[in-house]
Amino acid sequence: xxxxxxxxxxxxxxxxxxxxxxxxxxxxxxxxxxxxxxxxxxxxxxxxxxxxxxxxxxxxxxxxxxxxxxxxxxxxxxxxxxxxxxxxxxxxxxxxxxxxxxxxxxxxxxxxxxxxxxxxxxxxxxxxxxxxxxxxxxxxxxxxxxxxxxxxxxxxxxxxxxxxxxxxxxxxxxxxxxxxxxxxxxxxxxxxxxxxxxxxxxxxxxxxxxxxxxxxxxxxxxxxxxxxxxxxxxxxxxxxxxxxxxxxxxxxxxxxxxxxxxxxxxxxxxxxxxxxxxxxxxxxxxxxxxxxxxxxxxxxxxxxxxxxxxxxxxxxxxxxxxxxxxxxxxxxxxxx
Length: 336
What we know:
The protein is of the alpha/beta class. The protein has nine helices and 15 strands.
């Protein structure tokens, strides 16, 4: 069988532009490079095109076989997903969570869907051996790190509320670092008490440094199609607290992270679409953070197991090889 040839559509190569903006753009570039390294010839004159995008931006290329690689984080999915699936020759998504979300739209359009996970760069997100600041005379506070866009879905507001209600805001040996973004490009870093708000645009290596210097990642998202930042944080061995709902459950469990309890509630987006999301319980967040702080060696052991898991099976190399396998299967089926 001759090598698979693929036109990678909807590609924005400015992968480093937004620091901690880890959505379609960064993942598209990384997966494109990974599948090329796995032996797929990526060329615009290929007969098959893969569109890594939201269905609202999906524009099939006439005369080509068009695959749609997409994801979502809440149920039900918006109407444009069914429209996009109807126009696609095949759908690909990164998680079993998304596969379940897509089931009604896939059934309505009679389309099939393959699962191809995303990955991380093991040369960038390296394992870091951590020690609690209070041990061995080390100076500096115990840092709880959050990273995500400034919206309700990423959970920063609930985290800030938990920080206050648990009494952490009065603890000099604790620090909450909220790394977010500023869509207007006016990012800055502000310290209020023992909380830092950082909306600067950072290059990727600086973002990695923030996680290497932290002691625990707290990422209480209401839903993720995959959860790249959770994957990357865990790859450094960082103890992780998150919600037990979303695509991250493909690679997370209680042996490598701590889950907060959550409740489901309906929200309406700016376009008027109502869906269900999983909101982390503020009290549970505070308790889990306190447990990590008080029992840090146990949390570090979880982080170390998680890092080993990530580096052994969830890198971009693994993702590229999986995508190549799916593409080969689709070609064999089309030729049969």
